[in-house]
From TrEMBL:
InterPro entries reported in the protein's UniProt record: GntR_C, TF_FadR/GntR_C
Entry GO MF terms: DNA binding
Residues in GntR C-terminal domain copies: 2-79
Entry keywords, A to Z: DNA-binding, Transcription, Transcription regulation
Domain of life: Bacteria
Name of the protein this chain belongs to: Transcription regulator
A Pfam family per the record: FCD
Origin species: Pararhodospirillum photometricum DSM 122
SUPFAM superfamilies (alphabetical): GntR ligand-binding domain-like
Keyword Transcription part of the UniProt annotation: yes
Length: 88
C-alpha cells in the first residue's frame, strides 16, 4: 500500500509539474501528504485496479495527443473517489 501511494503521488506530480507554479505544486504535495493518512486508514485493495486503469488511460490519451480525452478520464477518476465504498 505504501509503495502504491508513493507511485500515485509521483504520477500526479508528473502531470502537474508542467504548470510551473511552485506554490501551487507545494500545496498539492502537502495535500497528498495529508490525504495519505486517510488513505492508509481506509485502504481497500479493490481500489488499486480501477485507479491504475484510469492512470494508464490518462497517460495513453496524453501520449496520443488527446488532452480532452485525458481530462474526461481525470474528471471521472476524481469523481469516483467519492463514490468508493467505505468513504463518507
Amino acid at each position: 500500500m505504501r509503495a502504491w501511494e508513493e507511485a500515485n503521488r509521483v504520477f500526479h506530480r508528473v502531470l502537474l509539474t508542467p504548470c510551473a507554479m511552485p506554490r501551487l505544486l507545494q500545496l498539492i504535495d502537502d495535500l497528498h501528504v495529508a490525504s495519505a493518512r486517510f488513505l492508509f486508514a481506509g485502504w481497500r485493495s479493490e481500489w488499486e485496479a480501477p485507479s491504475d486503469r484510469d492512470h494508464r488511460a490518462i497517460l495513453t490519451a496524453l501520449r496520443q495527443g488527446h488532452p480532452e480525452t485525458a481530462v474526461a478520464i481525470l474528471v471521472r477518476h476524481v469523481q469516483s473517489i467519492g463514490q468508493r465504498p467505505g468513504r463518507s
